[in-house]
């Protein structure tokens, strides 16, 4: 209607700060106060931060570039506009680039692209490009020449996707070592010239400390888990009440909800990321939330916007499927210090955004969990498909049928029909060579169909293999490999695995399951009341 106020929506695809704040339809949620605090401390001016993909890292770097270049006209009305920011008086030359452009199928491809990057930087600074020499040496020459021309004698470097060049070589250790040596030597020049650098921020999905890249950058301050940066990327619950409130109200009206119900639904789908164990703050994925607010639909936008190459390739190389992701324990060191070849899956999934900090046990130990409904959906679809590639159609059909059967008819129907059919459809490429592997696929299947199941649980006399809770009762599972369902059932009964649940209201059942390797399937499960 004419004269009706047009409501701006948060961006889902604009990564250029200038384009965003001058766009008549896009909304910028002000993070400049936090960026001011990040950038004003000259003693900690060389930083690294890791975040999952689609969390606004590129937009953050573009905002910082405009800040250091002193483009105050772009910041009118934002928090930093009223702060004593140095850029307003003494702008500094900024060199911003993404290492996502420095990729290829071979070492020579990567080296060629890195050379082109240095040539472009020289052109931006209007300094000669050294035609000969090792590429990192040419980068060193560029830094010195550009600093000499700078009015402040200083430079700003903003580097996105620092780890992307190595992503293609996780299964080719020889080439991986050559590429990471090249990157180590390249990044090391930033350390050697740190006296000429006013500010450096490097971003990535993973912090591959043992990649040897970071041994050339050990002067960087890692702020990935800093409480000061906990809400720097992503939208908070308070921001849904504040600058995004009108967008939530539009979403609520479209879905015939009140504001509180709409906000709760959006948070359940896109919130839950906790990036600092030293702060309670949680944030939503900004791109996914923005898409939901724009379309009015709750959906899985995470898989639709692509995957982090490093994460997916490492998952494939691991040849593993975690059985139960919620409640995994991890230490600060495990999440922070990772090797490309041997990164533990919990750490990889945390850095990739599939898991987040759910509980702080002590200063150095956390429990991880799935952050929200969107990631739960991704784990049951995109994660498995990217990991396995082949053999999924039959198994996917069983997943859908079992999910519908569980909802309509409960656990007994699942045990009588769907579980056997699921194991019969397991692709031959999947390895089921022992009880551990058989149980893993059982737990994975149950998780993917939405069953409320948890892995090994302790009782007074031992551990049940799994506990499934349903409206019809609590089911205590014991799993065997190459034996019999009766033997599994008797073990669970003899050791009284159901003990912790017998005092509750729901009925409790023992379930014995046996995987027969000769048949590549399970025998009929046996169920008895506890």
Overview in brief:
This protein has 530 residues and is α/β, with parallel strands linked by helices. It has helices at 17-22, 32-40, 57-68, 107-125, 135-149, 173-192, 237-241, 245-254, 259-270, 286-295, 309-318, 332-336, 345-352, 373-388, 392-409, 411-424, 435-448, 485-494, and strands spanning 9-10, 26-27, 46-50, 94-98, 155-160, 197-204, 221-222, 328-331, 356-362, 365-369, 452-454, 457-459, 462-464, 466-470, 473-481, 508-516, 521-522, 526-529. The protein has 18 helices and 18 strands.
| Largest sheet data | 6 strands, mixed
Beta-strand share of residues: 15-25%
Structural class: alpha/beta
Q: What's the β-strand tally?
A: 18
What's the gyration radius in Å?
A: 26 Å
Here the CATH topology of the domain at 9-229 equals Rossmann fold
Give the termini separation: 65 Å
- What is the overall number of helices? 18
- Percent helix, as a range, is 40-55%
CATH architecture of the domain at 9-229: 3-Layer(aba) Sandwich
Overall mean pLDDT score?
Answer: 85
**Quaternary structure type:** single chain
CATH class of the domain at 9-229: Alpha Beta
- Ranges where pLDDT stays below 50 over 5 or more residues in a row are none
Shape, per Cα inertia axes:
globular
SSE arrangement:
Layout: E1 9-10, H1 17-22, E2 26-27, H2 32-40, E3 46-50, H3 57-68, E4 94-98, H4 107-125, H5 135-149, E5 155-160, H6 173-192, E6 197-204, E7 221-222, H7 237-241, H8 245-254, H9 259-270, H10 286-295, H11 309-318, E8 328-331, H12 332-336, H13 345-352, E9 356-362, E10 365-369, H14 373-388, H15 392-409, H16 411-424, H17 435-448, E11 452-454, E12 457-459, E13 462-464, E14 466-470, E15 473-481, H18 485-494, E16 508-516, E17 521-522, E18 526-529
């Amino acid at each position: 209607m004419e004269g009706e106020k047009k409501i701006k929506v948060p961006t889902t695809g604009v990564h250029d700060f200038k384009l965003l704040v001058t766009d008549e339809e896009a909304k910028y949620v002000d993070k400049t106060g936090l960026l001011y605090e990040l950038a004003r401390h000259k003693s900690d001016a060389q930083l690294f931060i890791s975040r999952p993909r689609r969390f606004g890292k590129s937009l953050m770097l573009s905002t910082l570039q405009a800040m250091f270049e002193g483009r105050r006209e772009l910041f009118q009305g934002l928090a930093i506009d009223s702060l004593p920011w140095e850029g307003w008086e003494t702008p500094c030359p900024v060199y911003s680039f993404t290492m996502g452009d420095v990729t290829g199928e071979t070492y020579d491809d990567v080296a060629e692209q890195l050379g082109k990057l240095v040539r472009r930087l020289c052109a931006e600074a209007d300094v000669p490009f050294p035609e000969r020499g090792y590429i990192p040496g040419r980068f060193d020459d560029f830094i010195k020449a550009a600093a000499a021309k700078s009015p402040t004698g200083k430079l700003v470097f903003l580097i996105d996707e620092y780890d992307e060049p190595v992503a293609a070589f996780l299964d080719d250790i020889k080439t991986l070592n050559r590429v990471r040596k090249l990157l180590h030597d390249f990044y090391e020049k930033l350390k050697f010239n740190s006296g000429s650098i006013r500010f450096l921020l490097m971003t990535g999905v993973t912090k591959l400390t043992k990649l040897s890249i970071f041994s050339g950058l050990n002067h960087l301050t890692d702020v990935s888990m800093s409480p000061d940066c906990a809400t720097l990327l992503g939208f908070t619950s308070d921001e849904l009440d504040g600058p995004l409130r009108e967008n939530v109200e539009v979403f609520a009206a479209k879905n015939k909800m009140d504001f509180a119900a709409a906000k709760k639904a959006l948070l359940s789908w896109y919130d839950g990321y906790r990036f600092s164990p030293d702060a309670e703050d949680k944030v939503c994925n900004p791109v996914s939330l923005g898409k939901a607010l724009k379309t009015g639909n709750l959906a899985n936008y995470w898989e639709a916007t692509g995957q982090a190459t490093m994460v997916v390739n490492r998952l494939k190389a691991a040849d593993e499927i975690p059985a139960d992701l919620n409640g995994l324990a991890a230490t600060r060191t495990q999440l922070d210090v990772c090797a490309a070849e041997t990164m533990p899956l919990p750490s990889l999934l945390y850095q990739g955004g599939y898991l987040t900090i759910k509980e702080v046990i002590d200063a150095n130990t956390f429990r991880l969990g799935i952050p929200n409904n969107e990631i739960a959906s991704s784990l049951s679809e995109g994660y498995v498909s990217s990991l396995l590639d082949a053999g999924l159609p039959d198994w996917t059909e069983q997943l859908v049928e079992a999910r519908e059967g569980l909802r309509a008819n409960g656990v007994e129907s699942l045990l009588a029909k769907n579980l056997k059919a699921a194991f019969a459809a397991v692709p031959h490429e999947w390895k089921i060579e022992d009880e551990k592997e058989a149980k893993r696929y059982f737990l994975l299947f149950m998780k993917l169909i939405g069953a409320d199941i948890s892995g090994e649980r302790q009782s007074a006399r031992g551990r049940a293999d799994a506990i499934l809770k349903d409206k019809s009762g609590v089911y205590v599972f014991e799993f065997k490999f190459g034996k019999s369902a009766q033997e599994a059932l008797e073990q669970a009964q003899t050791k009284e695995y159901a003990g912790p649940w017998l005092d509750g209201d729901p009925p409790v059942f023992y379930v014995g399951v046996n995987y027969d390797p000769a048949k590549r399937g399970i025998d009929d499960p046996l169920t008895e009341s506890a």
